[in-house]
């Protein structure tokens, strides 16, 4: 079907096309708070500013490949499988021009980020504890972080530690404290236990009691 907006002698190639970027919110929990990984920009534009790991899509490169390349080159992270969050296309979100961001999200255990955090060019920012830093991120990255945290919280309402942030086995107290950190609010102990226990597999073992009374140890059922 012919597009009535395209005049005689023109084609889609005659119209301006946006640049496409990929930006990834790498989330973890540290010191009881949801944190996001930031990298210091080395490019001329916004040089020295903290931002999410991001890059422009290269010719004939897939979004997934661009994300993995960016995490490897800018954050020293490999072996991950980030998932696409959504496309951010608000006009004016990027002061470099018309840029669409195919935003991705990944949930990574803190121990797996230790090597990346050894660099002066990477740091964790607490989403709740450093709101001014998050709000000041360039390229609309604050909106990406907010949506990523919403996605994380929804995932943790439905299942026990779906991001595998806890080492197995763990106690129900360990699990509840993690979910409270993600939710940013206390959770009712008995309600949490009744909802989560059917989704867990008991190991038949008990904790050593170094953190209170010995408790049953669990694993994620899947």
Concise description?
The chain is of the alpha+beta class. The chain has six helices and nine strands.
List key phrases describing it.
elongated; 222 residues; 6 helices; two-stranded antiparallel ribbon; 27% helix; alpha+beta; Nucleoside Triphosphate Pyrophosphohydrolase; 9 strands; 2 domains; seven-stranded mixed sheet; single chain; Arc Repressor Mutant, subunit A
- CATH third-level topology of the largest domain: Nucleoside Triphosphate Pyrophosphohydrolase
Estimate what percentage of residues fall within beta strands: 25-35%
Spell out the helices and strands N to C: EEEEHEEHEHHHHEE
For the largest beta-sheet, the strand count, sense and barrel status come to: 7 strands, mixed
Provide the CATH superfamily of the largest domain.
Answer: Nucleoside Triphosphate Pyrophosphohydrolase
Mean of residue pLDDT values: 91
Name the shape in a single word.
elongated
CATH architecture of the largest domain: Alpha-Beta Complex
N- to C-terminal separation?
A: 48 Å
The total number of structural domains is 2
Give the C-level CATH assignment of the largest domain: Alpha Beta
